[in-house]
Amino acid sequence: MNQLISHDIAILKLPLYQPEHVKHVTRLDAWCQQQQTTLNSLSKYNSSQQARAMLKLLGQAGWLRHLISQEATPTSDARSLCLFRQTLAYFDDLLDFAYSIQSLSGSVIQRFGTEKQRQHYLPRLAEGEWAAAFALSELQAGSDVAAVTLSAKRQGDSYVLNGQKAWIAQGDIADCLIVIARTGEGPGALGLSAFIVDAFLPGVSHTTLGAIAPRSWAHLRFDNVRVPMENILGKSGQGFIIALDILDRFRMTVGGAAIGFSRRAADIALRHALQRKIYQGRLLDLQMVKAALAKMEIALSASSLLTAQAAWHLDHGRTFAKYSAVAKYFATEQAGKIVDDAIQILGAAGVVAGSQLERLYRQIRPLRIYEGSSETLLMNIASTLDAHRVQHREDLQ
Ligand SMILES: Cc1cc2nc3c(=O)[nH]c(=O)nc-3n(C[C@H](O)[C@H](O)[C@H](O)COP(=O)(O)OP(=O)(O)OC[C@H]3O[C@@H](n4cnc5c(N)ncnc54)[C@H](O)[C@@H]3O)c2cc1C
Q1: What SS3 class is residue 141?
Q2: What is the distance between the alpha carbons of residues 243 and 220, in angstroms, rounded to a whole number?
Q3: Which atom in ligand 1 lies closest to the alpha carbon of residue 104?
């Protein structure tokens, strides 16, 4: 097996992980290395076509099998999802993106679907035969999830959906959509429900979008889309809880992806600093360059530990939402800094169009916006601070 390059093995050896985690992520790392020629050959297609092809690749190789797993194991628990995303992001942005959106959307069905819904959708998603998307955001409802307006009105044994969804990853290739819609059981967040909507139903349409880091991305329209009642996920009125549950679980995995991208940038910078001759020595011999590389190493270690902490809490049935927000905030903010500093170390070579660092620079930026923007995460974390603990402490004056 090839050497593991997408992770710091010393962190994987900590008791936060089991030997099985290390074994599986090493296998994925080797698989990614073997797939490089195939992945490169896909670059002639547009990002939506690439996403389709990558889902098939991932599915056929068994990397989406966690969607049909009955219980959390070192190939399907939160730690493995974070580790796998780190590896996929290290090797290929679109491979990570396809894996993450399929996993997130499929997990909603896995967690809240009926047996019939699970049997129908999950094997196809796990094979990479079908693509899924998670449609929550609207043009006027992003951070403010309770402002969702897409309506689902009960008519006989169906719900009729009308409205739009915005910025939906895999929205232009999805075969099934998880849609959060307003059913009106109560005001604001209390009046939302989740549905599985087959994308081929009459009235569903999309407009493909371009992103600074190309990917399958679209706005969706729903015009009198008749969805059978049995396609509701969980109970009516539970849509907000379902959306929050899944976002809390998955935002730590965005931390994993951020580490993958920034680890690659740090590796590129270190290699360049070693090879670049300057002032009759190497760039690496300059103290400020050493300091920049050292800070990258510190940030990568801290991001890895925070992500592991969040996933460990989730896997052990502990309260984890705060740690998930902490991991995503820190790892994604640090990734921006690491990639930027890596570009600085390369000098002009760092800003060449089409270079790896240019791609990384584009790829890490959206991570601070979706699945909880940095600002909303800070608000969440601040709301968990224990004011009572210090309120009456006279010694702190
Ligand atoms: C690449 C990409 C993929 C995406 N994929 C999906 C998807 O698959 N499904 C989906 O449903 N959505 C998706 N989104 C949408 C994403 O979830 C939203 O963009 C996000 O929730 C932010 O909403 P917004 O863009 O409307 O910004 P707004 O909510 O308008 O926020 C604008 C700015 O205000 C800040 N802000 C918000 N609240 C506060 C506050 N309390 N204090 C201070 N500042 C605040 C935000 O952090 C942000 O910087 C995706 C977005 C991107 C970029």
Answers
A1: strand
A2: 18
A3: 8
Q: Identify the H or E element spanning 161.
A: strand 158-169
Q: How many domains does the chain have?
A: 3
Q: If you ran DSSP here, which 8-state letter would residue 324 be given?
A: H
Q: Which helix (H) or strand (E) element contains residue 88?
A: helix 78-91
Pull the structure tokens for residue 159: 């719900």
Q: What is residue 282's predicted lDDT score, i.e. its pLDDT?
A: 98
**What does the pLDDT read at residue 72?**
80
CA neighbor of 164 nearest in space, from 122, 205, 111: 205
Concatenate the DSSP letters of all residues of 207-267 into one string: EE---SS---EEEEEEEEEEEEGGGEESSTT-HHHHHHHHHHHHHHHHHHHHHHHHHHHHH
Candidate list 129, 371, 375, 394, residue with the active-site label: 371
Nearest CA residue ID for atom 43, ligand 1? 375
Q: ipTM above 0.90?
A: yes
pLDDT in tens, 232-287: 999 999 999 999 999 999 999 999 999 999 999 999 999 999 999 999 999 999 99
Residue 203, domain member (yes or no): yes
Same domain, 94 and 33: yes
If asked whether residues 117 and 153 sit together in one domain, one would say no
CATH number of the domain where residue 49 is located: 1.10.540.10
Of 363, 308, 360, 368, nearest in space to 333 by CA: 368
* b/e per residue 78-94 (b: at least 16 CB within 10 A): bbbbbbbbbbbbbbbbb
Say how far apart CA 309 and CA 305 lie, in whole Å: 6
- Domain of residue 200 covers 133-240
Residue 365 CA to ligand 1 centre (angstroms): 13
What is the per-residue pLDDT across 183-219, written as a single tens digit (0 to 9) for each? 999 999 999 999 999 999 999 999 999 999 999 999 9
Place of tokens 């959106």: 101
Q: Per residue in 3-25, pLDDT tens?
A: 899 999 999 999 999 999 999 99
